[in-house]
Write a structure and sequence with these properties.
The chain has about 300 residues and is α/β, with parallel strands linked by helices. The protein has ten helices and 13 strands. The strands form three sheets. The protein has an eight-stranded mixed sheet with strand order 11-10-7-6-5-1-12-13, with helices on both faces. It has a three-stranded antiparallel sheet with strand order 2-8-9. A two-stranded parallel ribbon has the order 3-4. The longest helix is centred in the middle third of the chain and has 21 residues.
Length: about 300
Amino acid sequence: MNATEFDRYEIEKNHPCFSEEAHQRFGRIHLPVAPRCNIQCRYCVRRYDCPNESRPGITSRVLTPSEAFERVSSVVRRNGHLKVVGIAGPGDPLANGETFTLLRAIHREFPELILCVSTNGVLLPERLNDLLKAGVRSITITINAVLPEVAERIYSWAYYKGRVYRAREAALVITNNQWLGLRMATEAGLIVKVNTVFIPGVNDDEIPMIAWLAGRRGAALHNIIPLIPQGEFSNIKRPTHEMLYSKRRECEVYVPQMTHCRQCRADACGTLGEELDMELETLMARIGQEYCEMVV
């Protein structure tokens, strides 16, 4: 078994996103160090200092790399079930230099942990080597369209190489880089999951095409997630369970489908069924360390 095959085996066995059994046994932690985003999805509303909602783009607060590293250290000391450290926002990790500073530090100190990143993929072709050097072994790319005319309805703008693109130009920048980045990532040996937000009346017909292309380009898993109506899409109804089930059945012939996603916050921690309050966890770890120092 070569290194890539071993990585794939370990991730598919131990990563809560890739294994429905692992999500009940192993924990993951998302580190909210990436507030800036380089695109605007019409369904996305990012909020900081928000403890009561549970969805992507939400965090109680944005952490510095040093604060996030301390958080990982405290969880490792207090909980032997941590397997995965991810950066999933609240913006796009690849648009934030703090992402790479933190990933390198964690990989040096805890090389046994699986590092993963969730990205819109726009910067993936140019930042792929940085991810590999930082020890990242799996990534999630959110791809919502194949055709630019559909992407134009989903994204309002993109910031790329010092310029703001809108309308069809933004759609072309986003989709071209996403599909190129996916191919480059799988060829480089990364284990890739593709997320697709199911937006009824907008990208229904695109989703099977996304699954087909993702499978052909080497994606290991496809995760069709229901729209959370908000932002410009607040008037679109969330797809029903029956609609999701039907779409997954349609797409599973092209690429394996994920069915246990919880649409996690950017600061999620614990198993998928039992979230930890990370502010409290970090405080308790500090109190414990200070007590030990006093005793010594």
